[in-house]
Amino acid sequence: MPLAVDSPILLAQQQLTELIENDPLTTTDFEGVYGSAPVAISQVLADLRTFASRVLALAHDDDLACWGADDLVHRCNAYRQAPLTTYRGRREAHTRGAWVAPTDAAATGIALAAALDGLSRTDPQDVVARIAWLTDRLEAKGGGVAHCDIEKWSSEVSPELVAMVLSAVHRSQGRRAVRLHYRTTTGRPQRPAKGLQLPLARAQKTPVSLWDTWTLRLMPGTCRGNLRWSTVQQALAVSTLQVGAWINLPQAQNLLGNNLPPKTLSRTLETLHTHEAGVEILRALTLLANLLDHEGSPINYARRRKVFGQRAEFIAPEDWLEIERKSGRTYPAPPSHVHHANRWIYQRLTGNPVRLMRVAPIRNRDDKPKKYPQFTFDLHPFEVDELTRRCRQLLSEESIVEPLSWEPAFPVEMPAPVNLPGVLLESIHHSKVHDVILAGGPSASAVANVLNTSAAHIRCIIDRHPLSRREILEDRNEKWRQLYLAGHSISDIGRMVGGSHPVIARELRQMGVEIRSRAPKRQYERLTQEVIHRYTHLEESLQDIAGATGMCRATVRNILEREGVSRRPCGRRPLQK
Q1: Is 360 helix (H, G, I), strand (E, B) or coil?
Q2: Which own/partner contact pairs does 224-233 have at CB distance under 8 Å and 24+ positions apart?
Q3: In sequence order, what are the residues at sequence separation of 6 or more whose Cβ sits closer than 8 angstroms to the Cβ of residue 211?
Q4: Closest CA to 258 of 195, 314, 302, 212
Q5: What's the rounded Cα separation, in Å, for the pair 486 and 483?
Q6: Separation of first and last alpha carbons in the chain
Q7: Helix axes 249-256, 262-273, angle to 10 degrees
Q8: CB-based contact 469:497 (threshold 8 Å)
Q9: How far is CA 502 from the centre of its chain?
């Protein structure tokens, strides 16, 4: 059939001729699929043949019109719809598969033109975009979208083509684990490595809680699910081990020593994946895994977890009390502070969340792990320096020559901050955080509300730039003590100076002030006799008395109990004749 000069079929014929007649047996013309390294021409031809056979089996008329005129499409369809003769001599309709070599020039030309149009692009993203239509037809047909089915297309198909097709399948949706296994969110998808060798080596370079700067970039500020900082850190670390390897979540958890409940881990990862920036989150994790594989880490976290993971005490209580005294504390700190100091050292040495730390053999009633964030927020710079020195001493005692802490730098290919749901650590200068704290910010959450960010962001900044607000707190506490000793109640002090009743009472006790017992409240004292009269003489119910006097039912009951009025038995009273 006569063709136009600019026909895609003639261009495809010219490309194939040059490819076959090429003197070297390798080519670099298909960089978008195979990369910059030379690839065997026989492999390229095999992939073109495999892709073209899928075009003939799945393409619609509108698809074929991109590479041929109406008469060519009509002739191609006539070939595709022609029945095949079986070995029994019967003629029956049959969908031509990869094992059927086309005998029509129009069908061959259109199929190979479509294959070359998609696979000859130099940019991997362009390749994915040009072959996406075929994966849409594959999904619409209802079969062959699983990675195992695509890999079985042909025994001679290359892993690069399989990865490209899967990247097109997963471009807008797809299972999170499969996208990580095949690295389909990056420009260079790859077939996953079998066995646990790759994730095991990566687990040695990864802490149980992912690094703060990476978690801040990847954790959404607001989303449909309820995300916790510590849980997100651990979930992201587990997902990093799944990149490029056949490993499921329980196996990854076991390699890291993570013991999050499976439902919590799955729900957290699903919330991150279904976020509007979920694809960028998976891409960032893939880039992080590639960075760890190629550049490594100066810290062997697996060794640290083995050496320090089972210890519960890292600093002696008397040493910590001496550190607090030298830092300028004027009154004894709670005994739980030494346990928090052990948690701080444990977290720095192992990279584990504090909940994985073994329970100390001797604990007091005030030792509650949920108070640990406030302890770290209030640490004096001198205390941080001494705890850091203790960490380095422990490393030296175990003959571990490593930096105390380390975080991988963001690669150049990292998605732009505007595409990720989190924030940069440097987006708020630490001086602004210090100013808010010195102005009276009592906690990381309060400071975060002022600066319109998250409490985790503020804690990460204070962790790197500690600030002592002890002088301000001690001045405030001294005012509380003087007012209380002068006869003012805790409620009056809260209204005059500021502060909640539990906080004021706790600080006064820590300073050795004996708290006076509060006088019992006498609410509605003027209505006491009326309540008794209505209950005993008029025999009204508690609800009726509450409605008549304007108080609640519980208050009526409390008044009767306080006055010693005996209660009537519950239930209906017999009818009076």
Answers
A1: coil
A2: 224/271, 224/274, 225/267, 225/268, 225/270, 225/271, 227/268, 227/271, 227/272, 229/454, 229/455, 229/456, 230/353, 230/355, 231/260, 231/264, 231/265, 231/268, 232/268, 232/272, 233/209, 233/353
A3: 407, 408
A4: 302
A5: 5
A6: 112
A7: 110
A8: no
A9: 35
355-to-344, 347, 458 alpha-carbon distances in Å: 12, 10, 21
26, β-bridge pairs: 40
One pLDDT digit (tens) per residue for the chain, 577 residues:
788 888 888 988 998 998 888 778 888 888 888 888 888 888 889 888 888 888 887 888 888 888 888 788 888 888 877 766 555 555 454 555 555 677 788 888 888 998 888 888 888 778 888 888 877 787 776 655 555 566 666 667 787 887 777 777 766 556 778 788 888 787 667 778 888 999 999 999 999 999 999 999 999 976 556 789 999 999 999 999 999 898 999 999 999 999 899 999 999 999 998 888 888 899 999 999 999 999 999 999 999 999 999 998 999 989 998 998 888 776 667 778 888 999 999 999 999 999 889 876 656 666 677 888 888 988 989 999 999 999 999 999 999 999 999 999 999 888 888 889 999 999 999 999 998 888 877 888 989 999 999 999 999 999 999 988 777 777 778 888 888 888 888 888 888 877 778 888 888 887 888 888 765 555 567 788 888 899 988 888 888 888 888 888 888 888 888 888 888 877 666 655 5
CA dist., res. 388 & res. 381, Å (int)? 11
Burial class (CB in 10 A: 0-12, 13-18, 19+), 566: exposed
Tell me the helices (H) and strands (E) count for the chain, helix number first: 30, 4
* Residue 122 near residue 31 (C-beta atoms within 8 A): yes
SS (H, E, C) 174-215: CCHHHHHHCCCCCCCCCCCECCCHHHHHHHCCCCCCCCHHHH
The answer to whether 530 touches 563, Cβ cutoff 8 Å, is no
Which pair of tokens denotes residue 301? 């976290």
Q: Whole-angstrom Cα distance, residue 91 to residue 88? A: 9
What single letter denotes the amino acid at residue 450? V
Cα–Cα dist 16/545, whole Å: 96
DSSP annotation string for 392-455: HHHHHHTT--S-S---PPPPTTSPPGGGSSS--GGGS-HHHHHHHHHTT--SHHHHHHHHTS-H
Reference 237, options 265, 270, 262, 263; nearest CA is: 265
Residue 85 is given by DSSP the state E
- 3-state SS, 502-514, equals HHHHHHHHHCCCC
How many alpha carbons lie under 13 Å from residue 520 in its C-beta half-sphere? 6
The single-letter DSSP state of residue 164 is: H
Residue 63 neighbours by CB under 8 Å, 6+ apart: 55, 114, 133, 137
CA-CA distance, 432 to 317, in Å (whole number)?
35
Residues 13, 141 contacting (CB under 8 angstroms): no
